[in-house]
Amino acid sequence: MSERSGSTWVTSTSGALHNGTGDMYVTFGADQRSSGRPSFRRVADDQLAWLRRVLVAPPGMGNARLQLARAGTVILDGAPGSGRTSAARVLLREHHTDVGAFRELLPGEEGELPLTDPELVGAGDRLLLDMSAAEVERWAAARADLSALRKAVHEQHAHLVVVMPYGGILDSDLQQYRIEIQQPCRARVLRRHLRVHGVPSEHYLRPDATVTEFVNEQRPLREIADFADLVRRAREAAARDEGFAQWCTTAHKARADRREEVATLVATLGDSPQRALLITVAMLHGAHADVIHRAAQLLLDTVGLPPDDVPLLQRKDLAERLVEISAGVGPDGHVRFGELDHDSTVRAHFWDHMPDLRQYLGMWTARSMALNGPHITQELRDGLVAKLAGEYLRTRRPEGLASLAEAWGSTAASKAGLEAAVQALTCGLGDRVQARSFRGWIYQWCTGKQLKEQFAQVLVQVCADVVAAGHPDQAMLRLYYLARREHSTGSALHALSDLVETSHRLRRRLFHRLARSELSRADLGIFLRVGVAEALTDPYDNGRTLVEEESVQSSVTTCWRAVLNGLPRPTWQPYAERWMHAAADDGHEGDLLLELLVSAADRCEGRRGAAFAALYASARDAERTAPVGSSRAALTTDLLLQKICSAQRLSRPTTPPRAESTRGTEP
Fold first, then answer.
1. Three-state DSSP class for residue 109
2. Contact at 8 Å (CB) between 1 and 56?
3. Mean pLDDT of 571-590
4. What is the 3-state secondary structure (H, E, C) of 632-648?
5. CA–CA distance from 411 to each of 64, 407, 421, 487, 515 (Å)?
6. Side-chain half-sphere exposure of 200, counting CA atoms within 13 A
7. DSSP secondary structure code for residue 540 in this structure
8. Which of 121, 332, 519, 528 has the fewest CB atoms lying closer than 10 Å?
9. Which residues make beta-bridge pairs with 74?
10. Predicted local confidence at residue 355, as pLDDT
11. How far apart are CA 655 and CA 661, in angstroms?
12. Do the beta carbons of residue 370 and residue 411 sit within 8 Å?
């Protein structure tokens, strides 16, 4: 298996998955958050499960397994193309449990804790530190922090796999964790991919000259994965009388450099309509002929060419025009080139040799997304955006794709336009080389710009469904900033709440961030939403709860004090009632919940009495709706009153004050 698998395998339509070159189809919709789809955590686990299916264990894998199981840490070394990063991910997948999550550590990026911070590691987490492409300075800094990181990993019963730079320096005290990964048998890698792609074994087990020549050449494993995917696609497009040898020949030919062939073809197409048709087929390869015709006309209109003045019945029909560009309409009515992967070469030619056309392709893509009809599918729209994004990423122009996504998301007048923005950012985040830039731009958008609400919704979806899949800390920070700024939809707050619901560690981080901030009214709303009592008393890590942690107690008390001081009682009353209900049902933890509320009220300088009275009145109100019954809830109210009296250094009154006596004293 390679460091970047060369095939595309979608195990669910719930999030972004891209394991190599080629098109990526991702369906996002405005209502998808409530569609019951698997969470981002499931998406990340599905990606790891796919890697495990296609991995051929490289030499050294067994030793790496033993090392990871024994010490909780392993450092993988190996030449580029040996499959070391895929091996690292599979090693972590093999330690999958219901506790903890898979995460890739990205030290130095916004939203990422330092490797030395104990809060970086949650109970049972599976952590990947991929430094395979790190420069000398970054690797030296990471090595210096590995001791503290390994200590936290050990304490949290987590697992850590580090991929070191090839030829990098490793300190003597870390040598015991180093395992070298070597490239596995290339023929076995190809057969494994073909098997997973559904190619029957009786085909690929036969000797084939094309396959033998291909696997005997020294090459990175990702190229073998790419070749296997081409064989799969050749099989799907082949005639019934073609066999494995023809599929492999077609796949091998698709790998050849056909740029001169395409350049010659373009030179023979002197008129604009034919070039527009060629571009359209390349961008919408496999679309229905009706869609190709409409989109080609739309491209001509986008670049400002006047309509054809030739009488309608004297014009060439579509079939004749397609023959001139080496394409045709199949029995299903869909248009394809005759050669496999010819569309990617055509796209690259126009992108590279007609740079002035690029801005028009962006405009045309946006207009094409708005087309409707029986043959306009979501897969077609997503594929169009993915192909355009692929050219930006191939030519290392990520800033152009980011700007295009921002423009689409800020000006889109339709759901399709917003989905295009989501898809464009998803493609950028899925690019191994340029994902870091896109995460940085998303952070800048979330924190430093006046966002139009519709683009803010794009960012919410991308953070919750894409960034969070492998980088939940970064997703949490970005959703936090979006939640602070939203006014009506509440989608960012909802997504943030869903995210911290998956991890006590993330909820703890959010509490600490809130407690250290100025606690605006928006911050208080975030706290009330994520600081629900049930989450604080939910056991984790061998029965521990968040409410028992001193640091959490301090942060929660600070936040509740700000709530009691800064918000009217009707705003926080429902949340306080939930605290009372949880306190009535949770024994020792319930007692701690009451202590935190009383401590928060006790710190309301100049308003202590009013805060205490409001809490008591809320407890009385909570008795009527307590799931455990009013009698048991009344005991909780009585305990709260005792704590209030103790805080005020008063003896407990023999007759508790009636709820009516608190009127006029509420904050």
1. coil
2. yes
3. 89
4. HHHHHHHHHHHHHHHHC
5. 51, 6, 10, 19, 37
6. 4
7. B
8. 332
9. 161
10. 95
11. 13
12. no
pLDDT in tens, 112-163: 999 999 889 988 999 999 999 999 999 999 999 999 999 999 999 999 999 9
Alpha-carbon distance 72 to 127, whole Å? 10
Strand 178-180 relative to strand 73-77: parallel, antiparallel, unpaired?
parallel
Is the separation of the CB atoms in 480 and 495 below 8 Å? no
CA nearest 628: which of 636, 638, 640? Answer: 636
C-beta neighbour count of 245 within 10 angstroms: 15
Spatial distance between the Cα atoms of 385 and 324, rounded to a whole number of angstroms: 26
pLDDT averaged over the chain?
A: 88
Q: Kindly state the tokens that stand for 62.
A: 């067994």
Angle between helices 587-602 and 630-647 (to 10 degrees): 40
In angstroms, the Cα distances linking 152 to 19, 30, 116, 149, 158 are: 31, 40, 8, 5, 8
pLDDT digits (tens, 9 = 90+) for 428-443: 999 989 999 999 999 9
* Average pLDDT of the residues in 475-502: 92
DSSP secondary structure string, 114-153? PTT-GGG--TT-EEEEE-TT--HHHHHHHHHHHHHHHHHH
Write out 256-273 in H/E/C secondary structure.
CCCHHHHHHHHHHCCCHH
Is the separation of the CB atoms in 186 and 224 below 8 Å? yes
d(CA 97, CA 123): 11
pTM for the whole thing?
0.87
Rounded to a whole number of angstroms, the CA Rg of the chain reads 30
The candidate with the shortest Cα–Cα distance to 184, out of 91, 78, 328, is 78
Least confident range of 230-234, 273-277, 572-576, 625-629: 625-629
Q: Is the separation of the CB atoms in 596 and 553 below 8 Å?
A: yes
Number of H helices and E strands in the chain, helices first, is 31, 7
Q: What is the dihedral of CA 147, 153, 159, 165, to 10 degrees?
A: -30
Q: Name the residue type at position 550.
A: E
Tokens at 306, concatenated: 């006047």
Contacts of 413 (CB under 8 A, 6+ apart): 370
Grade residue 487 by pLDDT with cuts at 50, 70 and 90.
confident
Cβ neighbourhood burial of 117 (10 Å; 0-12, 13-18, 19+): middle
DSSP state of 586: S
d(Cα 353, Cα 128) in Å, to the nearest integer?
Answer: 40
Residue 506: which of 100, 150, 110 has the closest Cα?
100
Residue written as tokens 């305990």? 639
Closest CA to 523 of 512, 533, 536, 534: 512
How sure is the predictor about 18, in pLDDT bands with cuts at 50, 70 and 90?
Answer: very low
| Residue for token pair 């990964």 | 181
Output the pLDDT for position 23.
Answer: 40
